[in-house]
Specification:
Layout: H1 2-12, H2 20-52, H3 59-64, H4 66-94, H5 100-133, H6 146-172, H7 176-200, H8 206-230
Helix pairs in contact: 2-4, 2-8, 4-5, 5-6, 6-7, 7-8
């Protein structure tokens, strides 16, 4: 009797469905990987394109082409927002896998990108107005007030610092080329461009040379970063 009841109970027992949480986690991770890859492929090259298309920096030329100056800076700001989305996705992927040092590095890189976004927005909005009324002041130390100075200084410290930390992090996990390209490119673009702008003046083409030399490897580094974290098999811990 007991054996008959046991068999009956076993026959009536159904296997519970697998929990949905595991599938939802996999789907979410896959979506983040796709987002990281897509934003890296867009953000890096778009950034390079806007740097190449950057108009002349002296006040008289900016006043003559204020709309184009504002447009190129708007597009560059958008590219930085896309890059920030990429970094946020990478941060989400490694949050529970890597150590606190890696998370701190990504937060620093993300903060630097957003500060540079603020600098570009400030530049694109402030300089065309200044160029209209006082073109000789544009891109000179005399035109830097407290608010603008804080943005410029913070961005020129945190942005290249984040790039250098990314270099060290990616090299540690076997992604040497992506790290070197991001670190070298970001530092040359940010520090080289700013130093040459205030050192040689807004009429010099040296600033454009520095920024393009830096933006090219920086953009390629982002593409490699997206390919690395866009794969199902990511960096090994």
């Amino acid at each position: 009797m007991s054996s008959h009841r046991s068999a009956h109970d076993d026959a009536g027992t159904t296997t519970p469905p697998p929990p949905l949480r595991h599938h939802n986690t996999e789907d979410g991770t896959r979506s983040v990987r796709v987002t990281v890859k897509l934003t890296a492929m867009i953000g890096g090259p778009l950034f390079l394109l806007t740097v190449i298309l950057h108009p002349a920096r002296d006040g008289h030329d900016i006043a003559a082409g204020a709309q184009w100056y504002a447009f190129t800076h708007s597009m560059e700001a958008i590219s930085l927002l896309v890059q920030a989305t990429c970094l946020a996705g990478v941060l989400a992927l490694v949050m529970n896998r890597f150590g606190s040092r890696a998370v701190t590095t990504l937060y620093t890189a993300l903060a630097g990108t957003m500060l540079w976004f603020g600098l570009i927005v400030f530049d694109g909005g402030h300089n065309p107005v200044t160029a209209k009324y006082a073109p000789d002041l544009v891109h000179t130390p005399k035109d830097i007030d407290v608010e603008g100075g804080i943005i410029v200084l913070a961005a020129n410290i945190v942005f290249p610092l984040g790039c250098v930390l990314l270099t060290l992090l990616l090299n540690r996990y076997g992604q040497r080329w992506a790290g070197l390209l991001l670190g070298f490119g970001g530092v040359v673009y940010a520090i080289g461009g700013t130093a040459s702008l205030f050192g040689f003046g807004p009429h010099s083409m040296i600033t454009s040379v520095f920024e393009i030399i830096g933006a090219a490897p920086y953009a390629l580094g982002y593409v490699l970063l997206g390919r690395t974290f866009g794969r199902a098999r990511q960096l090994s811990t």
